[in-house]
Amino acid sequence: MSDSEHGAKTGKVKVHNWNTLPRESVRQGVERVAFRSSDAMLVMNFVSPDMQVRPHQHDYEQVAICVQGRMRYHVGDEVFEMGPGSMIRVPAHTMHYAEPVGDELVLNLDLFPTVREDYRHLVAYQDEEF
Q1: For residue 3, what pLDDT is reported?
Q2: pTM of the entire structure?
Q3: In what order do the strands lie in the sheet with 106-112?
């Protein structure tokens, strides 16, 4: 059976690179880009050592992955040391934030199990794919 016989919508598939997407400046020391699938969202955060930390929480579970650099990841009352390849799960409604360690740019990839409405503007470039 074809995808159309199963009722699946196959949009235009394109490749993208987080290094060339327009970055949104979030606050001092933090820029981000995003990529989505039908049901999930990835957000690449470019975090400078001089970033302003901002503890926050949201309605979404989050997986944070350290791609480059070193950081301390605060989840609730715990602090976790993370380097390249480290991953952590942040439960929904839990206060958390990342804090760079050292003088290297940190690349922090966040995975969300849904397309966040408050981040939809970050993936508008993919509209024709859906």
Answers
A1: 39
A2: 0.89
A3: 24-27, 30-36, 41-47, 106-112, 62-68, 87-90
